[in-house]
Amino acid sequence: MKLLPLFLLLSAMCWAQPQVVTAGDEGAKDPSFLTYRQNLLAAVKRHDLAAVSAALDPQIRYSYGIQKPGREGFFAAWKVKKGDPSLWKEMEDVLVHGGAFGPNGEFVAPWIYAKWPEKYDSLDYVAVLVPKAPVHARPDAKSPVVAEVGNTMLKLSRLNEKEHVGWTEVEAGNKKTGYIRNNVVRGGLDFRAIFEKKNGKWRMMTFIGGD
Q1: 83-111 as b/e: b if 16+ CB within 10 A
Q2: Whole-prediction pTM value?
C-alpha cells in the first residue's frame, strides 16, 4: 500500500510532461501523390492560377456553406484575381509542412493537423514547429525574452483581447505569458487540405480553416 502514493506521483509526473511535437510526411508512400504535390507547390510558388485550378476538385470545399461552391467561388473568396496574395501564402504553408494518409487513402495536410494530439483542444492550443523559439514579453522582437520553447504544445493566453499581427499570445510555463511569432506555430484550426485520388488523378478536395 505504501507504493500507491509513489505510483500516483509518478503517473502525475508523466502526465505533466509536455507533448513533444514532431514533424512528419507520408507523401513519399505514394509516388503519384508526391509528383502531384510537387507540381502543385511549384504552381503555387509561381502564382499559376490555371495550374492550381486544374489541381483542385471542381467542387472543392473551402467554406462552411456560405460562399458559392467550387473553383470559381474558391478563387473569388480568396480575391486572387484582385491581386490578393493571401491564398498563395496559406497554400504554400500547408503544402510544405508534410501530412499523412488517412484510413480511406486520402492525404491530410499539414502533418500537425493530421496528427493533432487528442488531449489538446484545438481551440486552446498551438503547436511549436521548430526546435527553439523565443517567447517575448511583448509582441516585439526587441522586447525581453521570457522563455524559450521548441517542438511542444503551448496553451493560448487570452489576457489581452487585442490581436497583434504576426504574433500569438501564449502561456510559456511557470505562470509566464508572452508572445511568439506566428510563423513558428500552427493551430488546430489553421488552414488545412484534404486530397483524394479520383479516376487515377489526385485532386485537392478541401482547403479550409476554422471550425
Answers
A1: eeeebbebbebbbebbbbbeeeebbbbbb
A2: 0.85
Q: Are 109 and 102 within 8 A, CB to CB? A: no
Measure the CA–CA gap between 68 and 76, rounded to whole angstroms: 9
Which residues, in sequence order, are bridge partners of residue 13?
none
Other C-beta atoms lying within 10 Å of the C-beta of residue 66: 7
* pLDDT digit string, tens, across residues 37-96: 999 999 999 999 999 999 999 999 999 876 777 999 999 999 998 899 999 999 999 999
pLDDT single digits (tens) 166-191: 999 999 887 889 999 999 999 999 99
Q: Where are the domains of the chain?
A: 27-116+192-201, 125-187
The CATH code that applies to domain 125-187 is 2.30.30.40
